């Protein structure tokens, strides 16, 4: 009998350091670092950018040292040279996971908008591209009016749209997510985009769109893979990890997204505590 050695860990660069006025990267990045490190599949380096308004001229991460970049950042624009290096990393086969408000970042960087598929805020208007809708079992691009918004946080069902995608394989058709913001009416180029899961805020919810809004997405960018999770809001004044980021459904889809973005495959089993539709499963 041979004893197989453990597979090498997936190398994750957690890139953080600035939030817009609605978020707190210190709390969200601490939670991401802790949960992704503790999972066992990943080795995480955290890189904190300069503060808002500080000098970014030396900001040039060693992208190629990593399998996947986990982006928890919405702030100052990077130098063009750094943007180009990042574009080359992802288009050359690197992985990117865009976490929640990372899709608020860089509205005027066309390549970034292609990577995330759709985004919101930060000045993104109706000219940012169509909204992504899921109607009658397929994706529809909607050029109608409206820009990014969300109802007040609530518990909502996340529904699988692409059960055969590696990230979603084996997961339930629907599961109840812990209280969170439900991003709505995100807009962007939406090229090479697969809707993995949606959620809906019906007429009983104030500011609900009654549309199946994309919550989890997969985007091909050149040879690279991007997993975009809109879940995981941490408010500007939050000091503790919110339930949204301790939700077993949020965490397992994040881990699967990281593995898939890094390798193109998902080898993970569905955890016993993955939520069903009755109540959310919030980890300690
Ligand atoms: Zn948020």
Automatic annotation (TrEMBL):
This is ThuA domain-containing protein. SUPFAM superfamilies: Class I glutamine amidotransferase-like. It comes from the Bacteria. The lineage of its organism: Bacteria, Pseudomonadati, Verrucomicrobiota, Opitutia, Puniceicoccales. It comes from Pelagicoccus enzymogenes. It holds the Pfam family ThuA. PANTHER family: GALACTOSE-BINDING DOMAIN-LIKE SUPERFAMILY PROTEIN (PTHR40469:SF2), SECRETED GLYCOSYL HYDROLASE (PTHR40469). InterPro entries: Class_I_gatase-like, ThuA-like. Residues 11-261 form the ThuA-like domain. Signal peptide: none annotated.
